[in-house]
Amino acid sequence: MKPPEDRWPWLRGGLLGLVPFLLPFVWVVEINSCSDAPRRTELTGVDVVLRFDAEALAVVLPVLAVAIATPFLAARLAGPGPRLLVQAVGLLASAAALWGASFALFFGLFSQRSLRPAGFASLLCFVGLVVDGVLRFALGGRAWLQARRASKDS
Fold first, then answer.
1. What are phi and psi of 112, to 5 degrees?
2. For residue 132, is pLDDT > 90?
3. How far is CA 32 from CA 37, 82, 101, 107, 112, in A?
4. Distance between CA atoms of residues 154 and 151, nearest Å
5. pLDDT tens, 17-45?
6. Distance (Å, rounded) from C-alpha 65 to C-alpha 28?
7. Could you tell me which of 36, 129, 45 has the C-alpha nearest to residue 87?
8. What rounded mean pLDDT belongs to the chain?
9. CB 23 within 8 A of CB 45
10. CA-based angle 55:56:61, to the nearest 5?
């Protein structure tokens, strides 16, 4: 039987797989107050993604790849210690992805942004990554502690 932290390794990939379906919808309404008359712009998910430059994408894409790959890698490793380490890396990558998504959705120079339902749903997908990472890390930590106690008892 698989350890609980190794079950459903496709969950993070599934959550991130929902985000491309939300790209055509309006994610954010941006109100630019630089000029005399405030300008209101509706940004779709495609617009938000296209605002990333090449340097940002060079960071974002590997972080997302690590967040998706770590549950699969941890399931293939033997021993609770290496699994816990991989789960910690996956949790950090998931947290970085959530931070980047929230930064992209809420931050604008000289403007205010407010989320729309599709943007909120995409942000919830990234929150799901972190929740999955925390649960996997906690279950991996419990397995590591049990293995450590068992080795001390014998």
1. -115, 145
2. yes
3. 9, 48, 20, 12, 7
4. 5
5. 999 999 999 988 888 776 666 778 888 98
6. 25
7. 129
8. 88
9. yes
10. 110
Alpha carbons 149 and 145: distance in angstroms, whole number: 6
pLDDT greater at residue 126 or residue 48: 126
- For tokens 């068992």, the residue is 150
**Domain positions in the chain:** 4-153
End-to-end CA distance of the chain: 23
Chain-centroid distance of CA 122 in Å reads 10
CATH topology of domain 4-153: Butyryl-CoA Dehydrogenase, subunit A; domain 3 (1.20.140)
Whole-prediction pTM: 0.87
Cβ–Cβ under 8 Å, residues 40 and 102: no
What is the pLDDT at residue 1?
Answer: 58
